[in-house]
Model the fold of this input.
Amino acid sequence: MMTYVPQEYYLILSAIMFVIGSVGVLTRRNAIIIFMSIEIMLNSVNLTFVSFASFMGDIAGQIFVFFVMAVAAAEAAVGLAIVLALFRNKKTVYVDEVNVMKW
Amino acid sequence: MNLTVLLFIILGVLAMASAIVTIAHKNPIVSAMSLVVHFFMLAGLYLTLNAQFIAVIQVLVYAGAIMVLVIFVIMLLNLRDEDQLREKLNFRKVIAGLFAVGLILQFVTMYLAGKGDNISLPEKSIEIGSAQSIGQALFSQYIVPFEAIAILLIVAIIGAIVLSKRKYE
Done:
């Protein structure tokens, strides 16, 4: 079976998803939404890795996606624990209301 | 237009739409649910690239584990809707818009530069996407990073417990 979708389409789709995720990080105030936007950005990079791995016929890209997913899982656990601790101490998850360390 | 291109277009459009809903909706639960849809669409895209193992792992780890954690935290915190989402154009949104336009220009030039060498997916990609070949590479050539990931996960578990437990009074 051969696929006829050119690789540029995958790269463009992943670039659009990366832009969507970064705009989400820049515009939203809710820490959990910012967190989910980071997940979108990680996933768009994963799509680039997998498309290069498949089109080049090299397995290293897929191994790297595996490691990115493991790091994302670790980041999810620690990040959400930080959000919980923040909510317990400050009663908010909105990042512009957390300004104790602001200069 | 054959079936694979049609599948790619459907999955890609749905992935972009659900990503936009994720960052634009003011109810966090709706955002999380559309992010689940986004992860499933990405798993489908991995299947069109003959990466079966990564597609299954995507559904298990992202749509399964990570999103359960996110939805659990959202429901635990009982968040209100983000009421100031539709505020007028401020400095941060101008910066975000400029950033988005710059990135889009950058990838359009990347697309125009890469156009021409129209290679299709090699036959070899079917076998390298299987669980067998990934497992062999992971436990032979990439064994040191694999063990490092194990240490990282233990550190993350301990860190999450330490961060979220109540302080001793």
Observations:
- Chain B touches chain A through 85 residues (CB under 8 Å).
- The CA atoms of residues 149 and 155 of chain B lie 10 Å apart.
- The mean pLDDT of chain B is 84.
